[in-house]
Amino acid sequence: MGHERRRGADMDDVRVWDERLAWAYGLISKDPGERAAALDQLASARKATAEALDRFNTTLMTLQGQGVRDPYRDPELRSAHEEYLRIRSRSLPDGVWGGGDCENLLAWPGLPYALLFLEWEARYPDEWTLTAKAWGTKEGLIRELAVPAVGQDPVARVKLIDLVETVVRRAYRCKDREYVRVARVVDGHPLRVRLEGALRSENPWAQLHAGYVLWMLDRPELPNSRHVWRTWLADSRQ
């Protein structure tokens, strides 16, 4: 999101996030070499996270074995936990957790990386699935970002519209239906032009998904539930 994403965010916090996760931009690069390098970085980060968690668990079991009544107050365990959190923050999907605790998502320095994580899954789903599959994180981020404040932000809005179009033009993946939430907060001419284009395409998945999203946009009172989806699907095939 460039310098725009620094609006309302503390510069020190932004620098900390960038120091931890700037490498992740390589995951959405069109250059296979850059993506490969970022995937290697991700593998190293996930390995380090697993090792830090093992050290924490080992410390906990040792203290319990020694009869320590409240091991979570022990300085050694607290240090191991802090180390685990620090190392985990440099990995994915762990590094993009926490946005839901922020009162103002536009001021959250992690917003660009939350969008990046979703863009990675949308553009390179196979690589995402093999290296950082986290359906719960995907669903949680979509729900966290599908709010008016984020949808009205010019920079985030463009990203969200791109995500909706990318997702409707592919075969359905787990939690993709959640993007109806996003479509509703960025509804407008730019989005509808793209959805109409997908609807008129020769791609049957695009026709199906775009048709459903457009139908839901015209019925904001309807819940985006499995029942509604199945009812629409049955009616559309008649």
Helix-strand blueprint:
Layout: H1 11-21, H2 32-65, H3 75-88, H4 111-123, H5 125-132, H6 135-145, H7 148-152, H8 154-168, H9 179-185, H10 189-199, H11 204-217, H12 226-236
Helix pairs in contact: 2-3, 4-5, 4-6, 4-8, 8-9, 8-10, 10-11
**Helix and strand run:** HHHHHHHHHHHH
Please give the domain count.
Answer: 2
- Beta content: under 5%
Average pLDDT across residues? 93
Based on secondary structure, the structural category is mainly alpha
Dominant shape: elongated
Summarize the structure.
It contains twelve helices and no strands. With 238 residues, the chain is mainly α.
Describe this protein's structure.
The protein is built from twelve helices and no strands. The chain has two domains: 9-95, no CATH class; 112-238. It is elongated, with a radius of gyration of 21 Å. Helix content is 65%, strand content 0%. Helix 8 (154-168) packs parallel to helix 10 (189-199) and helix 10 packs antiparallel against helix 11 (204-217). It is an all-alpha fold and 238 residues long. The model is unreliable at 1-9 (pLDDT under 50).
Throw out a few tags for this protein.
238 residues; 12 helices; disordered N terminus
